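Hey,
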Amino acid sequence: MNYFISDTHFGHVNVLKFDKRPFKNIDEMNSTIINNWNNKVNDDDHIWILGDFCYRSANPPEYYLSQLRGHKHLLIGNHDKTVLNSKSAISMFDSIQKLQHIKDGKHNIILCHFPLAEWNGMYRGSYHIYGHIHNKHDAVYRFMSMSGKALNAGCMINNYTPVTFDELIVNNQIHSKYAGCISNRSQTRQRNSSLKSRRNSYFFS
């Protein structure tokens, strides 16, 4: 079984505020992700970690890796220097790549930490799974959503748990609907503000 997860940021205190993660402290976040992982993943499963595994942590990356089940594969992110500088951590991965093509059932999938504007097989039905943008609803996210074949593996939109390809599709659909609601509310506020400004201009000009 293949599982996907990205941007766990084990040990990174500031990520709690950055992503508005629902944990009291970094220890609770670390233990929650580890428990979720091990309750779902078996030793024979393959987990594709799409970058930014551990960052600014008081513990080395092997401290977390040694507690996690399954065959672990890393797609290198911009915050993985600590992993790459540790021979012990490197030895705990089955593979370490910047870009990877895999098959999951009938699906061809291109894996990369960074969201790609175009990927191999894009026009022949292949999917792209990425990380990096966390749970943002910015221009990059909106652009990536347009293809319908690009999936965000960020742990914060996937219940802080490694997920299957099918679960990734469902969670991204939920995240997209939530993003749409935020966008609609923002547009409504802008429209109301514009109308108010016009009324003020009419009455006081």
